Amino acid sequence: MLGWGDLWLNAHGGVHIISVFFFLLSIWLWWVLLDKGITLWRVLRLHEGFERGFWDCVSLEDYYEATKEQASYPTKDLFMLGMHEYRLIIESDLRAHGEGWHGYLSKLMGIELNRLFFSLDKRIGWLATCASASPSLGLLAGLWRMLEAFREEKSLQAVGFESQWAEVALMEALMVMVMGLGLGLMALLGYNGVASVLRHLYGRLENFIEHLSMMLARRLNDKK
User: Fold this and answer.
1) What is the CB-side half-sphere exposure of residue 88 using CA atoms within 13 A?
2) pLDDT over 50 at 150, yes or no
3) Alpha-carbon gap, residue 42 to 54, rounded angstroms
4) Cα(126)–Cα(21) distance, rounded to whole angstroms?
5) What does the alpha-carbon distance between residue 169 and residue 11 come to, in Å, rounded to a whole number?
6) Are 196 and 44 in contact (CB under 8 A)?
7) 3-class SS of residue 152
8) Are 29 and 190 in contact (CB under 8 A)?
């Protein structure tokens, strides 16, 4: 009985093409998952460190000056935006906006949060596409190989030859289907994991925005 390696080496050219495509696609998936995993781990770690310093600080102005030169990451960027707008409002003689300072600051930082997340969730949609398309592609390739083998076998039988090509083609088709299912499962698990971390991070940043906008609005009301 042929092993999987021998089966692949002696397989139809179309099986080679689709299996190489699946292999290259799996490399791309692993790169996306590793890139997103490292990026989100770094952002969460920086967020937790920033929050500890934020809640322990005595003065928001001093904390603003202390963190101003740090590298860019979502929590720090949102804080910089809120404090910068807070200072502009003070310099403009505390002219209130139509929806109030809390609503204005919260909406402003919410817009910035959505802009920042646009880069964080880039290429995530392709994981979902791959999770749904890979099994279907493997199934179609497997069915095509089986139909092609049956057609060839019928042609040989018509001229009096016997062959076992249909059995070999069935094994090749199953091999391609397994590749597609495995790739789709990997993409699905990766997508769910990354999406879950993104939702968790987005919720924490929304809470941070709400607390910061309330604190700044309270300070503005006191100054007024």
Assistant:
1) 10
2) yes
3) 18
4) 16
5) 8
6) no
7) helix
8) yes
